[in-house]
Design a protein that fits this description.
13 helices, Aspartate Aminotransferase, domain 2, alpha/beta, 13% strand
Length: 451
């Protein structure tokens, strides 16, 4: 009877989807990012609702298994956002369980200033020191050749995002990590499905993070994941995600380990309930089963989504190739297969127009654009207005915002260029040849008018 009723609800939902969402609508405004949802996602979310389980359950277990299998990693843990994934990844490295390898207050983490704040925020939130290295123009990733000169005896980790799905030089970074005993976190929130020399981005460092916000390669509405091949890190990340508790039993399940009342921890009495034993100062950053149900449908479509993104990026490169006198198009290094969260374009310094002008023109012609997020985060109020935050720029001494001036910004010339000259347009899978052609034609018309 229950299954019969479920089927009736799903059949009604199918009719609803076809009537309300079935016909593809033409874009009046071409957004730079977005989601692509089908009937399957709606049915899965309804299925999860009918369970009335509410928190992470059977769909979450299914998603974590599918996601780890897709990436080829041993462990995947879902969380409620990509930002939370980053927070969990870095916080896990402060665990006392890592002994001499744990990150301690005042330790340094290599990163970049041209990116999204939530790669930087966990460093600051854990009382660590971000060390900002300049980027390359074209890939918009860290210039890996500059890293070693910035390493000190306090440097303990590298925490970098793969910019809009285009990988940085993992060979160089992993060699430096081995040489100096550094942790490597791959922020892959914008890079799901991208590859570096045949390996999935996010699986080469010690920890990888992902985001499932609606703009990303697959969506749960809100959601994220942390992946690793290290069983100890997996348990630590789970602890930080699940209130900091020591127990690995999933919500709603007791005694999975068989040692619930037979352990001695901290100064607690022997046999104290392991479900209420806490080994870390953690959070509650789990997802709901509704989100996971959405992810289970989306991951089945991921390869198709990625193929459309790559096709759209290739079309843009082909159609804009005659404008390279004025524009810098994305660069792909050998052995890298990007997943193209978006398509980055830079206006050359000697072009007869500015980034601001072309962005305003595109927006006025109903084509959405985005900046490369914070541009130069050292110019953002979160840094400038808070003199308590400590950081270094390349091989500088320890600084605060009180020390910043234009001469210091010049130490990151490509980051400054990105802030002033770089923007991106969309490649997401709801866009096709018609929309890509409109983007290209609009850019061409703007350039012709400015020559």
């Amino acid at each position: 009877m229950e299954q019969e009723l479920r089927n009736k609800v799903k059949e009604a939902a199918k009719e609803y989807y076809k009537e309300v969402f079935g016909n593809k609508k033409q874009f009046d405004y071409i957004p730079p990012s977005g989601k692509l949802l089908g009937e399957e996602e709606l049915l899965n979310m309804i299925d999860a609702s009918l369970d009335m389980w509410l928190t992470a359950g059977r769909f979450n277990r299914e998603f974590e298994q599918k996601f780890s299998k897709y990436l080829g990693v041993k462990y995947a843990l879902s969380t409620n956002s990509g930002s939370s994934a980053n927070l969990l990844a870095l916080s896990s490295l402060t665990s006392q369980k890592l002994k001499e390898r744990r990150l301690k207050r005042g330790d340094e983490v290599i990163t970049v200033a041209a990116g999204f704040p939530t790669t930087i925020n966990p460093i600051i939130q854990n009382a660590l020191i971000p060390v900002f290295i300049d980027c390359e123009i074209g890939t918009y990733n860290i210039n890996a050749n500059l890293i070693e000169d910035a390493i000190t005896d306090k440097t303990k980790a590298v925490f970098l995002a793969h910019t809009l799905g285009n990988s940085y030089d993992l060979d160089k970074i992993m060699k430096l990590a081995e040489k100096y005993n550094l942790w490597v976190i791959e922020d892959s929130c914008d890079a799901l499905g991208g590859e570096y020399k045949g390996k999935k981005i996010g699986t080469i460092g010690h920890i990888g993070t992902f985001s499932f916000y609606p703009a990303h390669h697959l969506t749960m509405g809100e959601g994220g994941a942390v992946v690793t091949n290290d069983p100890e890190l997996y348990k630590i990340i789970m602890s930080f995600r699940d209130w900091g508790r020591d127990c690995c039993c999933p919500p709603g399940h007791d005694g999975v380990c068989g040692k619930r009342f037979t352990q001695k921890s901290g100064n607690l009495p022997y046999g104290y309930d392991h479900k209420y034993t806490y080994s870390h100062v953690g959070y509650n950053l789990k997802i709901t089963d509704w989100q996971a149900a959405l992810g289970c449908s989306q991951i089945e479509k991921l390869d198709g989504f990625l193929e459309i993104r790559r096709k759209n990026a290739e079309m843009l490169t082909q159609k804009l190739s005659d404008l390279t006198e004025y524009l810098i198009l994305p660069k792909i290094n050998e052995g890298i297969k990007p997943s193209w969260f978006g398509y980055l374009i830079s206006v050359k310094k000697d072009a007869p127009f500015t980034k601001q002008e072309i962005v305003e023109y595109l927006e006025n012609n109903k084509i959405g654009t985005r900046q490369l997020f914070a541009g130069n985060i050292l110019r953002q109020p979160m840094i400038v207005d808070n003199s308590e935050i400590k950081f270094r720029i390349s091989n500088s001494n320890l600084m605060t915002s009180a020390d910043l001036n234009e001469n210091w910004y010049k130490k990151l010339p490509n980051t400054e260029f990105i802030m002033n000259n770089t923007f991106w347009v969309g490649t997401f899978p709801a866009l096709g040849e018609e929309e890509i052609t409109k983007i290209s034609d609009t850019i061409h018309k703007f350039v012709e008018d400015k020559k």
